[in-house]
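Need tokens for this chain, all 280 residues.
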Amino acid sequence: MSTSSDTSEAIGTSPEVSGTRGVGRVDRAAPGAGTPVRGTRLTLTAADLGRPDAPVLTGVDLDIAAGEIVTVVGSSGCGKSTLLRTLAGLLPLLGGEVAQDGRPLTGPGAERALVFQEDALLPWRTLRANVELPLAIKGLPRTERRSQAGSWLDRVGLADRAQQLPHRVSGGQRQRAQLARALAGRPRAVLMDEPFGALDAQTRAGMQDLLVEVLRGTGATVVFVTHDVDEALFLGDRVALLGNGRLTAVRDVPRPRDRTAHDDPARVALRRDVLSSLGT
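Here are the structure tokens for all 280 residues:
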């Protein structure tokens, strides 16, 4: 598994941090396999992140609403992955608080699924068997596991690849399978660390569209780390910016999503603002 990115959203301590929580900004009403889950609220309060000998982010105030998609952008080494891993419960805080639905977050949990840039599929298991893993952990009977895994593979366009081993399919197809596995466990939050970073431009755009479509049938909260500003603006209800060891700003993203609306004045202005804030 690879790392690289991180996630966030602010509860306004800085005058640059603006915008209300984006609950319901994403259309989650389309039917999907199973009943939609209830998203979870993730918060960081006056949080210092990193290792004791190497602090990375300080004074982070972050409030990610249930059911919201927040994208996080920033330069390499700015703390994106550190933030994501803290929300996953993999890294302890140096100071401050991290919480899920108002309760202290003290470690990893099945309610928070991780998706990384390099797929973490088990190479000796078929795509279907990989997607079945979180269902097996939950103790579902084999027949039900196979049925649900097949449904998720169908939703991500891999029904005809279910019996293939990971090395027999393309990078984009492996990422689809990894997304299906993450969502099959019905997590309340999905934490994504530059999952499309290694894909070519065409495949990447297709994965972005697929992610939005698949999420319509879930209620999960999503934190998506990326270094690509256009990807952040397309996917996010809000975009959070990291730099100089801090969360520097959070911006609302105009909707509806339209990949062709390059000349929309509000989108052009927001893109310019984000690039300026990032110093690029």
